[in-house]
Amino acid sequence: MHPVPPSLQRLGFDPSFEALAAPHLADGNAVGRVTRSDRGLLTVATAEGQVRAAFTGRIRRAVAADPVSAPTVGDWVVLREGVVTDVLPRRSALVREDPDETTIGQVLAANVDLVLITTPMTAPPNLRRIERTLALVWQSGAGAAIVATKSDLAEHLEGEVAAIATVALGVPVLTVSTVTGEGLEGVAGLATPGTTIALLGPSGAGKSTLVNALAGEERLATGEIRADGRGRHVTTHRELVTLPGGGLLIDTPGLRTLALWDSDEGLDAAFEDIQTLAASCRFGDCSHSEEPGCAVVAAAAEGTLDSARLEGWRKLRKEQRWLASRRDARLRAQDKAHWKQIHKAQRTKGHR
């Protein structure tokens, strides 16, 4: 293998990605990392600098069949004459259901090592949203941390952080204020050289402001604070930026909706306490609703399990079952249409 340029190493191009890229790097091909995606055009950081690139028809056809395969921010790609020809296998991928099209996945970011789930302290934390986001993150293969932003505006910060900890099992909860600087050092310490961090959270959570504070300069546009203390939604695209200490951050637009996508394993990880209780249920396929001998329902009745958390789990599990049934129906319809076209072509050929 050829020596890896320092510029690629700083972007997280480690030996595992180098091995994946090696078979492609012949005949003048190059490798780079997607730092931004705009309507089919990618901004790719290469050893020679930033380039704007489209991708091949083969990739477009693959994306049409599976939208989750679409090149996105964080992907490592192979380029030939300024065109993306291949996307290297991903180490992790943050995927949700496309908010505009049901039964279709949408990849938010790729090859993320750590996700910072941002929740603003301008109001009581939305625990159900945190549970949902954690399920998505655990499914992706990345690690997670909770960042309670705008801590200077919290009315009961200690109690709100304690509430978050009850649903973010084993996940660190950091408080930060970009106004006072409190907590910034702790967040910056997570962005070690070559580590890719993604920020996920609702609109107005202060993600772009946090990126700028960590970068030490205005890298991303931010909105003014409203009278109620909440920020205004500004970010409209995903973008990867490098930090002075060598880490990389992916800012994402505020997610108004966050429907899970094929997240059974992530859901089990996010609700590990319920999974542990379920091992004591009388029936192995217990749905934790009305079955006799359900240890989960018993724990909720006794108060050792928050009933609201159980209801949140039920809602997410129901969503997953509904999505699976819709996806199966969609795949059956696609398969039927495919064979219909084949049979039509065969009949047409036979009549010639």
How does this model look, in words?
The protein has 352 residues and is an alpha/beta fold. It has 11 helices and 13 strands. The protein has helices spanning 6-9, 15-21, 57-65, 127-140, 157-167, 184-188, 207-215, 264-270, 272-278, 295-302, 307-350, and strands at 30-38, 41-46, 49-55, 76-80, 83-87, 93-97, 105-110, 114-120, 143-149, 173-175, 196-200, 239-242, 248-251. It has a 6-stranded mixed beta sheet, with helices on both faces. Helix 4 (127-140) packs across helix 8 and helix 8 packs across helix 9. The radius of gyration is 23 Å and the shape is globular. The chain starts with 5 loop residues before the first helix and ends with a helix.
In short:
It is built from eleven helices and 13 strands.
Uncertain segments are 225-233
Mean pLDDT: 87
CATH architecture of the largest domain: 3-Layer(aba) Sandwich
C-alpha Rg, in Å?
A: 23 Å
Task: Give me the number of helical elements.
Answer: 11
Oligomerization state of this entry?
A: single chain
Main structural class: alpha/beta
Kindly estimate the percentage of residues that lie in beta strands according to DSSP.
Answer: 15-25%
| Helix content range | 25-40%
Structural topology:
Layout: H1 6-9, H2 15-21, E1 30-38, E2 41-46, E3 49-55, H3 57-65, E4 76-80, E5 83-87, E6 93-97, E7 105-110, E8 114-120, H4 127-140, E9 143-149, H5 157-167, E10 173-175, H6 184-188, E11 196-200, H7 207-215, E12 239-242, E13 248-251, H8 264-270, H9 272-278, H10 295-302, H11 307-350
Parallel strand pairs: 3-5, 8-9, 8-11, 9-10, 11-13
Antiparallel strand pairs: 1-2, 1-4, 2-3, 4-5, 6-7, 12-13
Helix pairs in contact: 4-8, 8-9
